[in-house]
Batch of 3 targets.
Target 1
Amino acid sequence: MATVRIPTAMRSLAGNQGEVRVAGATVGEVLNNLGRAHPGLGARVLDDQGAVRRYVNVFLNDEDIRFLKELDTPVADADRLTLIPAMAGG
């Protein structure tokens, strides 16, 4: 089970938890299982096609999954996924 860090702006969708433990062998499985456990949060992270939404960055440990194997990136029990909503404005 990986640890998923939930940003403050999304914590109300995860029972006000800052971190949750989620099973999955890949980033995609972890995020899908996160969505099953917390449907409102899942909809904010993944779009209808199952892809990570443009305004959400996902890091496995300290690496952006876009520079790894994206949703197919393998996840180990000790790994940490961090969800970071993109900031906009100027």
Target 2
Amino acid sequence: MKEPTLTRMQESVSSLKKDFIEWSDALSVGVEEVDQQHKGLAQMVNELNGAIHGGWGKETRDDIIVKLLEYTRVHFATEESLMSISNYPHLKEHKKQHENLIDIVKAYVKKYNENPEASNYEFLFFLKRWLVEHIMKDDKLMGEYLIKTGSVKTKKPTSWWGGLRKPFGH
């Protein structure tokens, strides 16, 4: 086995610094509370990735998964409340997707409890794919509906010009 060179060690550290799920405006659904929660979910998946790659052990992995599961439930309750209040026409299907994810995560937890040596990467990549696809497809539709129906306030203007126009009544 080769000794790690400084270059290889730096490359390894730099690859750990890069987020597994990188947040961008492309993932925004336009609803501030939902976007903030999505950022939190992405950060927890990134934390899980760090734990797995860093070899932090089963206990740490399990703690992160429990925290992720609880936060996910809170997030889903937020979305489902917004959809219910606004009479979102796809609430039933959207809620079913949420329930399916919770069931899948519970199955992974059971798998890890039965076999602590089971691969974490399958779960990690599943979470990333599910979260990004769900946000890009289903949550964006929900966000558009909530904004179109006036059920939520849109984000504040991000440009300095947009911020200037508001005080002058434009």
Target 3
Amino acid sequence: MSGIVESAGTEEAPTAQNRTVRSALLDAALEVFTERGYADAGLAEIAARSGIPVGSLFQHYGGKRGLYLALWEEFREAQERRTAATLAGERGRSVDDPIALFVAGARAYLEGAWDNRRFGRLLVEDDGPTGFDALRRQWDRAWVRRNARLLEVDEKRRAGRVRVRVLTTVIGGAARELGDCEDETEAQEIVDEVCGILIHLSAPPG
């Protein structure tokens, strides 16, 4: 689901200055969205906190919706890179058991959710731009399909599809809970507990 960030105009070359400006805008947007929620966040405040003029904000992101979607895409891509690297490392150690790989990927995803908990807390509020729910559902469906392939589940069988969807829902729910953890120790307890649950639930029936 790449390319969801809306462009307000001509694409700019990814110069160091552009990257710095965009990073400052995203950091400020995340702060304001987290404090006030998406609906009540103001572009003037985001611009003021970033030190970037409002006009430049529109040039780079087209407005508040573009900022939110850019934050989502940044979060999503970071999570995908993290889990992919973990799976590559496991396979490099000759791990080929589907359940072991699935749980390793789930652990990486959950630890990434803790590391990026500021945005995770924002997602829990379900206070995003119009149309975001549809984009999120689209990504969720792709996530379920990837997990089905990882677990070597026959997606043509309804029981298999349901099992993978339940497992994916468990991970998503746990990721949301991590946003409310008091500290890393509590977060790690949740990650360990959920991974134990996933091992139990991942075993094929019979």
